[in-house]
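Allow me, if you will, to draw on your knowledge of protein folds for a short while. I have a record of one protein: its chain in single-letter code and its fold written as discrete structure tokens. Kindly check, if you would, that the fold set down in the tokens agrees with what the sequence suggests. Thank you for your consideration; the sequence and its tokens are set out here:
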Amino acid sequence: MKNYSSIFTDDISTLQKEIKAKWLQVLEFIEQNFDKKPDLNAVLFLVGIRELGQIPEKPFSKEDKTRLMHIANCKALSYSGYYELQGINREGWPVWENVKPLPNLTLIEQENLLRQHLIEYFEREEIIQFK
């Protein structure tokens, strides 16, 4: 994840504007490619499918969808060392371990942290080149 500690002298709203602009680019990218207006859960679901790397013959169950979103959470938060990939289970699903306690944040702060990490995912995986 980008190290923002060097910008303490900048107005924090500048950082917030940058994150918001990049997040809107993520949403726009998904909408253009899937013809649906996504929300945070939809982004997590799509990242989870990508990380799973396989499409089942039958639709994902509700439990599978939850697991896919968990995979995306873990992958994104691994950039800051919160999770580590332990391997792949016999069903071919990634297994993640929480190795560093997550910060105690409000729901809004949690969503913002996740958005920042998902932006980083799209950057690192070279899915989107942010403007």
